[in-house]
From TrEMBL:
PANTHER family: AGA OPERON TRANSCRIPTIONAL REPRESSOR-RELATED, HTH-TYPE TRANSCRIPTIONAL REGULATOR SRLR-RELATED. InterPro entries: Carb_Metab_HTH_regulators, DeoR-like_C, DeoR_HTH, NagB/RpiA_transferase-like, Tscrpt_reg_HTH_DeoR_CS, WH-like_DNA-bd_sf, WH_DNA-bd_sf. It comes from Candidatus Lachnoclostridium stercoravium. Pfam families: DeoRC, HTH_DeoR. The keyword Transcription applies. This is DeoR/GlpR family DNA-binding transcription regulator.
């Protein structure tokens, strides 16, 4: 393989997954660590990568899909955990609930006790394995194509399963929110799944920290008027709070520990 081809493939992986590791690249391209380090340094000089310990990460503006799950779970973690604590009392005993692939929703899953009697459906292996340790919670995991960035299942099989279900309450995250209440996602497969969940739930709880406010992602997913309860943190702009109130969406604001 030519060096130019290798650099192009590394750049594509950075854009898709958000990060690369030297050891994995060595195995993939059958070259030495020194060669890969030179490649990453060259990409950094072109502002196409940011060198990190053991590899490189993509500059934020170049990532064209969702960041890897392991990266997202550590971002704004205090806010996510505080939001999850506010969401916990909203889960009624004996309910049929849906937990999506959001890392904020995963923080909620970790808070559930072994005493709560629930049926939880999720599209995410990480959340399913976490909840499956609770003996009183029945867990159903959607089938379908397993996505590498989120450990979630999507596609025709997952959507066909959802068409047979109704939920008392669903807990969702979102990639983007505008100040006037529009929800968005960069993913076409996520769009279809989340639209189905919203339509088949008596109550929808949106869990999103204030960093999600800003420029919308590729696809308009819905509007805050379709959401029963919005849970966020105190960094949210006043204009968004007023938008929720105008659309009769309950808004809960978490205090963030310092």
């Amino acid at each position: 393989m030519l060096k130019s081809e290798r650099l192009a493939q590394i750049q594509s992986m950075l854009n898709r997954y958000g990060k690369v590791e030297v050891n994995n690249l060595c195995r993939m391209f059958h070259v030495t660590e020194m060669t890969i380090r030179r490649d990453l340094n060259e990409l950094e000089q072109q502002n196409l990568a940011i060198r990190s310990h053991g590899g490189a990460i993509a500059p934020p503006e170049t990532v064209i899909t969702e960041r890897p799950y392991q990266t997202r779970i550590t971002s704004h973690l205090k806010e996510k955990e505080a939001i999850a604590r506010l969401a916990l009392p909203l889960i009624p005993s004996g309910a049929k609930v849906f937990f999506d692939s959001s890392t904020t929703v995963y923080c909620l899953a970790r808070l559930l006790s072994n005493e709560q009697n629930l049926l939880v459906v999720t599209d995410t292996l990480t959340t399913a394995l976490e909840l499956n340790t609770r003996t009183s919670i029945s867990v159903m995991c959607l089938g379908g194509e397993l996505r590498k960035n989120s450990n979630s299942c999507t596609g025709m099989f997952a959507e066909n399963m959802l068409h047979t279900m109704y939920f008392d309450c669903s807990f969702l995250g979102v990639y983007g929110l505008t100040e006037d209440g529009y929800l968005s996602t960069p993913s076409t497969v996520e769009y279809s799944l989340k639209r189905l969940i919203i339509e088949r739930s008596k109550k929808v709880v949106l869990m999103a920290d204030s960093s999600k406010i800003g420029t919308p992602s590729f696809l308009q997913l819905g509007h805050i008027s379709e959401i029963s309860t919005m849970i966020t943190d105190s960094g949210i702009p006043r204009s968004f709070i007023e938008c929720c109130q105008k659309n009769n969406t309950e808004i809960l604001i978490a205090d963030i520990p310092r």
